[in-house]
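Subject: Protein entry, chain in single-letter code together with its fold tokens

Area: Proteins and the way their chains fold up in space.

Attached in line: The record itself begins immediately under this heading.
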Amino acid sequence: MTLSTPSFGRVISWLAAASVAAGLSLSAHSVAAQQAPPTTIRLSPEDLERGQSGVQQNFYFLPPGKTGEDNYKSAGFFGGGLRPYLAGDAEALSSLDAYKRQKTLFLVDKAVLLGAVGLYASQVFGHGETQYTSSTQLAAGGLAVASLIGSIFINRNTNEYLKQAVNSYNTNAPGAHGVLWPRLRPAGLGLATQSGHPVLALRWQL
């Protein structure tokens, strides 16, 4: 009976591949263990789902380095609660200024609508008899209709401006690109044989 023994070179190859696999595995675990809290601003899941013409409510967000539901902060009606975190990012601040402008227009539009409705109602009995189609009432009604139509255009992109501000900050934030490593890090390491030679096998979780 003949016993075949692996060549010295093949043994060295196996040992080298095993050392590389072990080193990569330890490095991956070390990076995962030392991973710092996110440096990005994260909107609440409900606010992320807001699209065009969405509801006009305050946004809630997690500041950089914070996690957990208890740490959510309100951006405020005009987004002022978010502004300190965007300091130094001109692109993000520009989008936040556009959000503030739209919210101001929103308030002005509502004031015009209430004023028009109030004026119309005051004219119903304004001359001692019931009337609904005086010239003043027609003007007030037209103003109310214009306000309702204007609100459609005002609200269309208001929420998008705040989301753009957050996206701009997250794109330009220091270390933002480093968050890609956990996604690219192999989920598993091992050894395999190809044509009788050891090769390093990597596996990713999709």
User: Anything to note?
Assistant: The chain is about 55% helix and 10% strand. The longest helix spans residues 90-122.
